[in-house]
């Protein structure tokens, strides 16, 4: 599978990098996904916990807001988040959030931006940017 790239003409989202599920009780959800389902725990970040599920990362996050049905978010991996954001913005896509740093990992920084599809579903663009040595 080739890397997802952004060019001046188009963006091709062809790799899902993460799926997010909103939960009402983070401790209960961590016990379920980690212990009951046996997913490999990766890291915590604030009110979120991350697990590896094959090639896809699963993020479970807790919110004080009422949980909406179908609150799942698909995150698409892109090699250059800023270029993908610029290209899609030029095509008229309105982003709910501009590219921003989410987490500093041991060997890379995790950047994300969010947009809505025509039916209002949230889609995330994510880029794992290696750190310069």
Describe this structure in words.
- By secondary structure, the chain is an alpha+beta fold.
- The protein is built from 2 helices and 8 strands; from the N terminus they run βαββββαβββ.
- The chain has helices at residues 26-36, 81-90, and strands at 16-23, 40-45, 48-53, 56-62, 73-77, 95-104, 108-116, 122-130.
- The protein has an 8-stranded mixed sheet with strand order 2-3-4-1-5-8-7-6.
- A hairpin with a 5-residue loop joins strand 7 (108-116) and strand 8 (122-130).
- The longest helix has 11 residues, at 26-36.
Major pleated sheet:
8 strands, mixed
Average of per-residue pLDDT values: 84
* Content-based structural category: alpha+beta
Outline? globular
Q: What is the CATH topology?
A: 2,3-Dihydroxybiphenyl 1,2-Dioxygenase, domain 1
For the secondary structure, the number of strands is 8
The CATH H-level homologous superfamily: 2,3-Dihydroxybiphenyl 1,2-Dioxygenase, domain 1
Q: Please state how the strands of the largest beta sheet are arranged side by side.
A: 2-3-4-1-5-8-7-6
Unreliable sequence segments = 1-7
Strand content: over 45%
Q: Measured on Cα atoms, how large is the radius of gyration?
A: 15 Å
Share of helix, binned: 10-25%
User: Can you tell me the CATH architecture?
Assistant: Roll
List SSEs in N-to-C order. Answer: EHEEEEHEEE
């Amino acid at each position: 599978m080739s890397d997802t790239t952004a060019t001046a003409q188009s963006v091709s989202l062809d790799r899902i990098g993460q799926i997010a599920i909103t939960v009402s009780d983070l401790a209960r959800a961590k016990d379920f996904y980690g212990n009951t389902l046996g997913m490999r725990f990766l890291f915590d970040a604030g009110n979120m916990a991350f697990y590896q599920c094959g090639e896809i990362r699963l993020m479970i996050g807790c919110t004080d807001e009422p949980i909406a049905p179908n609150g799942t978010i698909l995150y698409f991996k892109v090699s250059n988040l800023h270029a993908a954001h610029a290209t899609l913005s030029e095509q008229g896509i309105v982003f709910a959030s501009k590219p921003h740093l989410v987490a500093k990992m041991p060997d890379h920084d995790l950047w994300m931006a969010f947009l809505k599809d025509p039916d209002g579903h949230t889609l995330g663009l994510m880029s794992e940017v290696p750190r310069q040595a």
